[in-house]
Amino acid sequence: MSGITVSGGAGGVGAKLDDMRLQAQQLATLSTELIGRSGTAAAKAVDGDLLESMILSPVTGAAAEGAIVLASGSLLLVATETGVSAVFLEGAVVAYETADQLIAAATVALHNGVAFVIGVLAVPVGLVAAAGVAVVGGAWMLTVAGVNVVVEGVDSLVEGAQQTLDQIGDNPWLLLSPAGVAGLFTANSIAAYSPQEVIDRTAATYADALARLQELAPIAGQAANEWLGDNAWIEDILTDGAPGLLAGLTFLPGLLPGFNGLMSVVTGQGWPPLTYEQAIDAIATGGGRFGLFEDGTAALEVGADGKPKPHAVPDTDVRGLGDLMNGSSEIDRIGGDDFSDIRIVESAGPPKSYIVQIPSTQVWNPDAGPAANDSTSDVVAMQGEQTALASAVLDAMRAAGISSTDPVMLEGFSLGGITAGLIASDPSVPFNITHVATAGSPVARYDIPDDVQVLSLEFEEDPVARLDGRDNPDRANWTTVQGDAPRLIDPATQELEEDGPGIAFSHNSHRYEEFADHVASAGDPSVDAFVDSADPFFSGDQTVVDYRGTRQ
């Protein structure tokens, strides 16, 4: 496995900026204190006792006055230098943050511009390409048919000539009539010509070409898959520039009178959308007009006593990052299409703490069903709104007896991580969320509090992790680890995959499980700081139960 890239966390730029800002505040405080002490020292120069003593000893008094002036001046000088240093440090932080914001804004503008051009050209270029393929394909098919007609014609002439020669050998007297020979040759050639043979030969050529295309398609597909994986920045342009892309796709229809007004009515947004958030809202609202993305409410499976029913998970321990990712794979397999499986891992402590594992998307139908971990939850969560899945998670936490003071780690892969970020960023949630761990989750736009420790794992090739169109914040409490998606052992052959996962197969919880183990042992200070802070969640006796949530 290749190396990793770590941003944020204890060793990140954000932490260093925080240190600089803190140091600037301390220097400013020290400068104020020194100025005060300088004034106190200067006041001694006009002290009544000192002035009276100068009458008796002018030389000594003058020396004392000079020392006081020198001391107070030195303190004032040091105070000034300290104050200037504080201003300089604070200014450096502000300058860096301002430059970073300007670069980010410029990047968004550039991405929107490029995405707009892509959107404008997509339809006409697609139509031209399709027409070109149709014309070239049709011309080729006609050419193949024409060639086979000619070939069959030549074959029939050869066969007709051979039959005529055979007939002349049996009846030499036929040579006495050249016209008769010509007529006989013509009749034999016509009889030898087979339209069915032309059809069969043409069909065989088409079938052979199709078979060759089918052989080449996986090769071309894998090449495209790996190329897109290696150039995933293309998705950054399309996601960050989502407003520009939507505007571009509808630019030509938008020239028609009333089209933009119609789109505004359908999407509930001014058209075209101007921000990423407006673009997501337009998709959600537009789908809602047709009965899609209707999230509803959530409920947990109950037992005979009418209370939420926990399902014990024996022989399961969560002792590190790899175990977290393995748990994500397990709960996805358990839930399926019928319900969302939510896992609660209680560590006895002290102090007692809980890991809450949230399932990823298992149903891609935009028409909401009983399993709340579906594409509806994805869209609603990306809007920043609480979902039925999030409600089921909170209900499971209450059912597990988690108090408002117990430390809680929220963890999830894909939608599970999105939901974890959504819950952690909601100030109304009545739980003590101290840690969040995500894998392959677009969570950059969530305002997770500074006192929550966040670890985000992302593959360079993973398209889902890039759907937020923004880098995760570089903050002291938020560590992001990026790297290449590892190849896995094929369970059928027990051999390592030959091809890289590329953009199509990188979004996989098993790959993140292997990546998490590698990350935990990489020795990066930011990662180590997160793991150390999370140690109570992985220590002591553990009890694991699952709750089954459904959408109502």
From TrEMBL:
InterPro entries xref list: AB_hydrolase_fold (IPR029058)
Give the domain of life: Bacteria
Protein name as it appears in the record? Uncharacterized protein
- Species the sequence originates in: Plantibacter cousiniae
